[in-house]
Structures are given as structure tokens and as C-alpha cells.
Design goal:
The complex is a heterodimer. By secondary structure, chain A is an alpha/beta fold. In chain A, about 35% of the residues lie in helices and about 20% in strands. In chain A, strands 2, 3, 4, 5, 9, 10, 11 and 12 form an eight-stranded mixed β-sheet that branches. Classes of the chains: A alpha/beta, B alpha/beta.
């Protein structure tokens, strides 16, 4: 199929489906206890130069503990899926971890405003970019999940978003109509925060899955952080509720409040005050360095970070604010 | 006789009237969400509200802060994923979508990517998010925005989301679904539409107290101006009551 038009963006990952198949052929299928720690998971699965994708949606259901640890371990030169990436992007950029981004949405924290530091970094010209859209990234992951080299969609057409993407315009062999051909994306590692998981990685997500169903299937390695561990028996009691089966998962870590300061549907709302503090701290490099030293580099782990942010009494307030928890 | 109202309340009321009953709308956070909620509570009880991250028809308890936060599917009819929402739009089932952006041109092309050179931009914005997707797929796109000449420009620095591209027939030529495109823009100065023939932005009605001159001064390109321009009907007592008591009681948006 000859391309009618082609974007000038770079491909940050190889869309060859047979290379992917060769990888998945070797991925272990036996049910083994995959429990690990945040430190170990980052050490083992996130390498300099890897392609990293984060689940959730910006400041909703994000794996904050792992994001902080990626920064603490000084991971560098990462390619990143900016698939509505807001506070997660802020954290990784604060650590200078990212070298290349597939951009659907970055920098902005939606209604809260733009991250001054992320904006500064993205205006420096030091991070390589390729432009996409939210749905384009879904289609790329879906194609990868389906073992294909590209997916097709009717978005991007006619725009500069297309021009600066690595997509192509093709003509349908049946109707002659034009479509955007979007190259498959197999992230090296995806990190997803879920509501429940057993020790093998069988995971449940309550509420919107966003794009985590396709992400978990496209990624070569999947790290799950879970609000709580449940037994395999519990998973088997309700097989309908399983969103991510164990054979996609490489590591499981129980991280209660693991999405803080992001929203975790049914559990706790986002800590808007803390997110505001981040944005304010970023307006000045010195205050930002001090802020990061306090909240990220200076803490030994995520639990200590939670304590600094108000600990249990703050978390109780955020639990009360979460409407879907339907407690009263 | 008329209750007093602020600019934001007027814009939201005007926008809500554009959403017909029995239709479906994809919304973002902020004023568009308030407009959809107001429409639903007044003339459009059967309006179906969708959020791009997967929330469908929530009984919105409060304004969401993110299009992916839990309020967007609170007591909803379905909590699904982004692929499902976007494929619904692409299949032709979503009538309206609200878009935002830094710049817009006379054909309704929107920039939310960058100012200056793409690889080393003078200003880098967040990027499309779901905007290009909605602008490509939904039947009619709307915008709620402030009106000034830095926004309403001759040429956008970057076309993030497609309006009518370079003129009549160009969307279809690019491969975008026939019959889709920009519909209305509600600003603090006016309600604007697009000429059926030329696809250029045109002034349709003026916000109360605003003159044609003011609109022209705040638009870099030549806006199509009809012979006579009616005034937008003021926000009604009922619209304001619903907005203030039910839609945005904490004044997160109307208090701006």
C-alpha cells in the first residue's frame, strides 16, 4: 500500500510485528508469585533508553511510587508515551528522565494550568518530539496488542499534527477512502496502578480503564502497583472483573494510596493543594530544587512521602472527598 | 427585571442553548461541561454527555477537574475507556464536541500545540489531547473562548485540530468524514458561526452591550458580518438559577 502522504516525525519504536511476536513467545506463562518492591521493579524493568508508558490519565490512577523511584534511581534517556500525561509527566521531567516523547497531551494539568518546568524543558529543544493525539496513541497500542504493524483511523488528516507525526496517509484498498496509518507501539515497560491484584498479577480496575486495557497488552513488560492484594480465589470468584490477566504482568507491588496525589476512583480524590504546591514550586528553579529534595530525593520511600504530605489525616480527607466511594 | 449576571454566566447560557435535546456531546472540563449540564437541566433533558477518558452520562455531583477524574463517571450509565468513546465518535454517533485552544483562524482550525518552530518552539502548549480526534470525528464542534486578536488570527502557527482547513471541500479531500466540522463559537463578545458556502467564520449575534466594532477590533482576520446582527438573549432567571444552584454552586467556573 503506497503512502499518499507521510509525516516527518521520527519513530521511537520499531513497528515490526514479528519482532514483537518473538518477544511474546518467550514471555513466561506460568503463574508465579510476582511480588516485588518498587525499588527492585524499577531496577529490573526500567532501563536507560527504554520506552516507558504510564497508565491512568494524568493525575488519575497513576503509579506515583514508581514514578518517584524512576527519578530517584536517575533513569535517563527514556522515550515516553505522552498519552494524556500531566502530573506523571511533571515528575519524570523534574528528574530529567525523558529524551523523546510521543506527544498526545503533555505539560498541562488540564484545568489546573501548565507546568512551568515541563514547559521550559519542552521549549528548550532538548527533548525530541513526535506529535500524535489521544486516540492515535490508543490505535497504535491497539495495533501492537493485535500483533499488527499499524492501525488505521480517520483522525490527524489535513493537520500539522499529522505533518509532525510519524503516521502516513493511505488509501483504503476497498473503498479508496483515505485513512491515517498509525505505526504499532510496543512500549518496553508500562506501569499501571490498579484497584486489586493477586500475587500473580491478575488485576482489576474499577471505573474507567482509560487506555490501560490496550496498554497492558501492547507493553513488553508490565509493572502493576495495586491498592490492595487480593487472593487468586477472589479473582476466580468473579472472572468478569479481571481486566489484566497474569500472563501480561512481570511485577506486582502492593502500594496503598499509590495514586496519591492523583485521584483513585472509589478510593480517594486528588490532592489539589499538593498539586498546586508543585506548580508553584516550579516557578523558581531554587524553590523547585528544594521542593524536590524535600518530597522526592530526601525521602526513603513513598510511605515517607505520604507522611510528609499529611499522612493518614490528609488521606482520610481525600477519602471523604471521593464521590464514587458513596459512603454516606 | 432581568437578574444581573457576569460574562462567564452569559457565555455558558448562550452555549447551552446550542445543544439540542436528544443529542450527544463530548465535553472537556470547565465552561463546556457547565454548558452541557445547564442544557441537560433546562431544555435538553435527554442530552447524552460523554468524557473522552471513558465516562458516559454521569450524574455529575460537582465540576470535574480532569476529564478522567471519578466525577466524570459518578453514577454514570457506563464507565469504559478512551477507545470506546473515540470509536463511538468516529462511527457518527456523537453530535457535538467542545474544543479549546490558543489560536483559531477563519476556517475554525485550532492551535493547541505550539507557537514558533515545532522543534524548538517559542511556546509549547499541551498538544491535541482528544481535540484533533473530536474535531475529526464529531458532527459539529463548538468552542467557548475569550475573544481577542491574539486568539482569532489570520494564520495559526500550527493546525492541531482541523476546522475547514483551507476552505470548502478541503476536509473531505483530506479524508475527514463528509458533513463534519466547526459549528459555533461562543465568546465573551459574540456568538459566531460558519458560512455554509465559504466555510469562513461569520458573526451571528452580539453579546448584550457589545458592538460590531469591538468584535472586529478583536479579530485579526476579516470576519463575515451580516447586514444586521441580533443581540444574544440575556441569561434568563431560570438559566441563572440552575447554573448557580445546581450546576456550579461552588462557583468554580462562574466565579472566574
Amino acid at each position: 500500500m503506497k503512502a499518499v502522504d507521510q509525516g516527518v516525525g521520527s519513530l521511537f519504536s520499531d513497528p515490526d510485528p514479528d519482532k514483537a511476536r518473538a518477544f511474546f513467545a518467550g514471555k513466561r506463562r506460568d503463574m508465579v508469585d510476582k511480588r516485588t518492591t518498587v525499588v527492585e521493579a524499577v531496577r529490573e524493568f526500567v532501563h536507560d533508553g527504554s520506552y516507558l508508558a504510564i497508565g491512568g490519565f494524568g493525575a488519575n490512577r497513576i503509579p506515583t511510587a514508581v514514578l518517584h523511584e524512576i527519578v530517584r534511581q536517575g533513569k535517563k534517556n527514556l522515550s515516553f508515551a505522552g498519552h494524556t500525561s500531566t502530573h506523571d509527566f511533571q515528575i519524570l521531567v523534574a528528574g530529567n528522565c525523558i529524551k523523546r516523547v510521543d506527544v498526545a497531551y503533555i505539560i498541562g494539568l488540564e484545568a489546573r494550568g501548565l507546568s512551568p518546568n515541563a514547559r521550559r524543558v519542552m521549549e528548550s529543544g532538548e527533548v525530541e518530539v513526535c506529535e500524535w493525539t489521544n486516540y492515535a496513541m490508543c490505535v497504535r497500542l491497539r495495533a501492537a496488542a493485535d500483533g499488527l504493524s499499524f492501525g488505521i483511523a480517520r483522525n490527524l488528516l489535513g493537520t500539522d499534527t499529522f505533518r509532525y507525526s510519524a503516521g502516513q496517509v493511505i488509501a483504503c484498498p476497498f473503498t479508496g477512502k483515505k485513512f491515517a496509518a498509525l505505526p504499532a507501539l510496543w512500549p518496553d515497560v508500562a506501569v499501571i496502578h490498579v484497584h486489586e491484584s493477586d500475587i500473580f498479577g491478575n488485576s482489576r480496575i474499577k471505573g474507567i480503564t482509560i487506555a490501560d486495557d490496550v496498554l497492558a497488552r501492547a507493553a513488553k513488560h508490565v509493572i502493576i502497583t495495586t491498592e490492595r492484594l487480593v487472593t487468586n480465589q477472589e479473582i476466580r470468584r468473579d472472572p468478569t472483573a479481571t481486566v489484566i490477566p497474569f500472563y501480561l504482568v512481570d511485577g506486582v507491588i502492593e502500594v496503598p494510596y499509590g495514586s496519591y496525589p492523583g485521584n483513585m476512583a472509589y478510593e480517594y480524590f486528588s490532592d489539589e493543594e499538593h498539586l498546586q504546591q508543585w506548580l508553584e514550586a516550579e516557578t523558581n528553579m531554587e524553590t523547585f530544587r528544594a521542593f524536590l529534595d524535600k518530597y522526592l530525593y530526601g525521602v526513603k520511600d513513598f510511605d515517607e512521602y505520604l507522611s510528609l504530605c499529611g499522612g493518614l489525616s490528609r488521606l482520610k480527607e481525600l477519602r471523604a472527598e471521593e464521590v464514587c466511594a458513596d459512603r454516606i | 427585571m432581568a437578574t444581573s449576571y457576569n460574562t462567564m454566566e452569559m457565555m455558558i447560557s448562550a452555549a447551552s442553548r446550542l445543544l439540542e435535546d436528544g443529542k450527544s456531546v463530548a465535553v472537556g472540563t470547565g465552561a463546556p461541561c457547565a454548558a452541557a449540564m445547564l442544557a441537560q437541566k433546562t431544555h435538553a433533558p435527554n442530552l447524552v454527555i460523554l468524557f473522552e477518558a471513558g465516562g458516559v452520562a454521569p450524574l455529575l455531583p460537582e465540576m470535574p477537574i480532569s476529564v478522567g477524574d471519578s466525577r466524570t463517571f459518578f453514577h454514570g450509565i457506563m464507565a469504559t475507556g478512551m477507545g470506546e468513546i473515540m470509536s463511538t465518535c468516529c462511527r457518527g454517533l456523537v453530535d457535538y464536541a467542545f474544543l479549546g485552544g490558543a489560536q483559531i483562524d477563519k476556517y475554525g482550525n485550532i492551535n493547541s500545540t505550539c507557537i514558533g518552530d515545532y522543534r524548538k518552539p517559542k511556546v509549547r502548549f499541551p498538544g491535541s489531547g482528544g481535540a484533533n480526534d473530536f474535531a475529526s470525528f464529531c458532527w459539529r464542534t463548538l468552542m467557548l473562548t475569550v475573544h481577542n486578536a491574539r486568539r482569532f488570527v489570520n494564520k495559526v502557527d500550527f493546525i492541531t485540530s482541523p476546522g475547514y482547513l483551507t476552505g470548502p471541500g478541503e476536509r473531505e479531500r483530506a479524508g475527514l468524514p463528509a458533513g463534519s466540522g466547526p459549528y459555533k463559537i461562543v465568546t465573551d463578545l459574540a456568538v459566531l458561526g460558519f458560512d455554509a458556502e465559504t466555510k469562513e467564520m461569520k458573526l451571528e449575534s452580539l453579546m448584550p452591550g457589545v458592538t460590531v466594532e469591538e468584535v472586529k477590533e478583536n479579530t485579526e482576520f476579516g470576519l463575515l458580518i451580516p447586514e444586521s446582527v441580533p443581540e444574544v438573549e440575556e441569561a434568563s432567571g431560570e438559566e441563572l438559577r440552575v447554573l448557580r444552584e445546581e450546576v456550579d454552586p461552588h462557583r468554580y467556573i462562574i466565579g472566574r
